Amino acid sequence: MGRRPSVFVRPVSMEEGRRLQRISRTAKDPVRLRRAIVVLMSAQGQTVKDITSLMQVGEDYVRDVIHAFNERGFDALDPKWSGGRPRTISDEVREHICLIARTSPADWKITAFSTWSLSKLAEHLVKQKVTAVISRETLRRILREGKVSWQTTTTWKASTDPEFIAKMHRVLALYDTLPADGRVICVDEFGPLNLVPRKGKAWGSVRCPRRLRATYNRYGGVMRMLAALDLATGKLYYRIRPRKRWREFLDLLKALRARWPEKKLYVVLDNFSPHKQTKVRAWAADHEVELVFLPTYGAWLNWIEAEFVALRYFALNGTDHRSHEEQNAAIAAYVRWRNARAKPKINFAPDSPIRSWTEYPAKAA
């Protein structure tokens, strides 16, 4: 058999040569990169055999690329994927598979297990004659394309408060328009404040995290923080006590009353039992303090909750205080820093769906 004639690309202009060089340096698609190198080498006068030896590809491949470039130009460098073989599982069957995957085995009267694995689901699909045979990998791809993912089950605690909407709107009304005759104060308890190493975030060398001691015993007892957030100024007021009974809560109310003696206080708070103690209610009624209770399971409506998150993150996480005095000093330093930069609290959850609620939703969204 005679030697096959050598093949070369058509004459390449200076601009085309620069473009080929640029593609051979920057192309991220391996097919486009390989084809550009073949064309560039051929344009430089290298034979098919030389290109085959250097690129470790077949002669037919090199000849096909050169002929394609001569016919179509730079379009020949882009791969034209055929898309593979046709799907053997129709779109209707794929949708049916995703629907079954979202059910529980109990829905099919299967009591041996409570959740599907890929193997169990594939076996069930064959048994139900949804498909003749299906591999775990094919099933996994179908579920991913159908946006069905493996997720952790979450809980939904519905409020049983018959006045949920009314209470929520009352709180939101106070947030939106602070009353001219008084102050709106958000109150809550924070803790427990025990002496333990607390995990946190900090900058450090890669793979060299900051270490904290491990402890097993809890000495020094537990302290509690009672705090109040003034929405008009955004400042935080607090006190730390060994307990959080109604007596400690009443002392906090008295301190707030003394701070603003001439204004009515609207105190937003949760349904913790000391807040509803008879003596607390009686004192509040006699001293122009209105206790505005949140609806049950609506604690996130208390504006002070976000302040507690920031306090925990910036002042306590990553610390290992050995005494309550040391820990209390850290909290005090953070509160002073925070209050020096405080601004009035406005625009509470302005775009939240709760503002359009007319009734409590029957289930989680």
TrEMBL record:
Residue ranges of the Tc1-like transposase DDE domain? 183-323
Q: Which domain of life is it from?
A: Bacteria
Pfam family example for this protein?
DDE_3
Matches recorded under NCBIfam families = transpos_IS630
Q: What is this protein called?
A: IS630 family transposase
The organism named in the record is Streptomyces pratens
